[in-house]
Every structure is written in C-alpha cells, then in structure tokens.
Amino acid sequence: MSSLSAIFFDLDGTLVDSSIGIHNGFTYTFEQLGVPSPDAKTIRGFMGPPLETSFASCLPTEQIELAIQLYRSYYKEKGVYEAQLFPQIKELLTELAQQYPLYITTTKNTPTAVHMTANFEIDHFFDGIYGSSPQAGRSSTSRHFTSTTIENLNKNTPIKLECFLTCDCFDLSFIS
C-alpha cells in the first residue's frame, strides 16, 4: 500500500465536465445584465477561477455581486444538470475509496458541489466535500480550500501531509 494518507479532487474539470452549464450560466448572466456576452474562448477562460475573478475581468465593480447572484441562480436551477460525469469516474472512485480517504476541494459553492455529487451518485465515496461560501472571501482558491480541509482534518485526527491532489490547470497555478 502507498504512503499516501488521502486523495483530494477538484470537482469541475476533474470529476465532472461542467463546461456546458458553466458556459450557459455566464451567457445567461450577461444577458440578464444587458451587457454583451464575451466570446466562447473568453468564457472558457472563466472556467476554473473564482466567479469574482472572472466577472471582475469584464464588468464594473458595482455589477459583480449581482452577476454572481444571477450566475449561481442559473447554475443551481439548470447548469448543475447540464454537467456530465467523466467516463469511468465511478469505477475509479470505487477502487480508490477502498484504499484512501477521498475529499473534494473546489471553488464551487459548497451546497452546489454537495448537490452535484449526490445527483451523480458519487457523494458516498467522499469523506468530505469542501467548497466556497460567501464567508470565504474573494481570493479563495482550491489551494485555500485544500489547506482548510487539511487543517480541519488535523483537528480531529492528525494526518501526515502525504496526499495527492487532482485538479485542473487553473488550480495548479496555486499549488506551491
């Protein structure tokens, strides 16, 4: 058996392909705000970073909070159901869960991440699902959520920091 003590997964782009729902959520938001929607390539670049970062790149500061509310409303009602589990993820999680504690750390809103994993019937594989909240602040990243998860785990049962994180390219830029 490996010396790994836990495996941490990002959700979007790692376990699920949520690109259609995310794209549609951004398009909906810009339509509701009455501003031109960026092109598909620009919207693709919004996938990964926190919503605050993406909206700040193309909207005035005073519209960012409303944009986030509109986006999250769309995503909760429709976007979450436009996502698809990547092929063979259930089989992989079945195998890994027999050997390691598994966690999700994501910049996605925690209730949405929990709902999404339940919808795909993969929630039972995870010992914890950690994501963003309004209290997390604007600069929260997957690195922040991963370190917070480890801190919380160490409060109950100290674990060796020999873990493996799977994530998308945006998240890799935050790993030191």
Helix/strand layout:
Layout: E1 6-9, E2 16-17, H1 19-33, H2 40-45, H3 51-56, H4 61-77, E3 84-85, H5 89-97, E4 102-109, H6 110-119, E5 128-132, H7 142-156, E6 163-166, H8 169-172
Parallel strand pairs: 1-4, 1-6, 4-5
Antiparallel strand pairs: 2-3
Give a verbal description of the structure.
By secondary structure, the protein is α/β, with parallel strands linked by helices. Helix content is 47%, strand content 14%. It has 8 helices and 6 strands. Strands 5-4-1-6 form a 4-stranded parallel β-sheet, sandwiched between helices. The protein has a two-stranded antiparallel sheet with strand order 2-3. Helix 1 packs across helix 4 (61-77). The chain is elongated, with a radius of gyration of 17 Å. The two termini are 26 Å apart. The relative contact order is 0.21.
Write out key terms for the chains shown.
6 strands; 176 residues; four-stranded parallel beta sheet; 14% strand; two-stranded antiparallel sheet; disordered C terminus; alpha/beta; 47% helix
